[in-house]
Amino acid sequence: MANFRVHVLGAAIPSALAAGLAIAGGLVTPLVGGVCFGLGVLGGMLPDIDAESSVPTRILFGALVVGAAAAAALALYDDAAPWLAAAAAVAAFVAVRVGLRGFTAWLCVHRGLVHSLPFAALVGVAVVLVASRAFHLAPTQAWLAGVFLTGGFLVHLALDELSSVDLLGARMKRSFGTALKLGSRRQLLATAVLYAGVIALVAMSPPADPFVRDVTSKRTRAAIAAAFARFP
Ligand SMILES: [Zn+2]
């Protein structure tokens, strides 16, 4: 298992490069590009949330709980009475905290379903949905945000898998094959629910075509080339 620092760096470097390209290509504003970078790094830490007391778990839980409270307060700030916004913030704080505890207890086995490809897809599509519905991002930007999270997640799984190959001895450690997988044979029902969840979220998400079209378009490539040409 690769350690925490390797995971953060391993996700941060490609995320920074990709975010830079996305901004240069005019796909996202610098702000959204920065958020994408953050999501990529988050994705690199996310898979280890199933290890109860790991560093990423504590950081992530703290961030998620505070983020949920802030989001609840902001959402109600304009239309509701201040005390209601405050109460909602506290409620969100408690709900997310308790919910996350229960969630990790349910996942329980480290290297269980969380370290799987469908879980990587699930968290990404969830971001697409939140980005488009709650933050009203255009489909291209919303999908890009989701791809960053899933990308960071995949980097984590790949690093875990790499670290279970003993390069010097040229043999596989026992943990090989436990990180990059399509599901869990011991948790068939949960695996099925996971796939159903991915399909449901994709169905609710904005179409991905504009994202694919924009990312592969000549205009984007030309914008990136132009941005690089500005450097001597
Ligand atoms: Zn891991």
TrEMBL record:
Keyword RNA-binding listed: no
Coiled coil stretches, renumbered: none
Transmembrane segments: 28-47, 59-77, 83-100, 112-131, 143-168, 188-208
Any one GO MF annotation of this record: hydrolase activity
Name under which the protein is recorded: LexA-binding, inner membrane-associated putative hydrolase
UniProt cross-references to InterPro entries, sorted A to Z: YdjM-like
UniProt keyword terms in alphabetical order: Hydrolase, Membrane, Transmembrane, Transmembrane helix
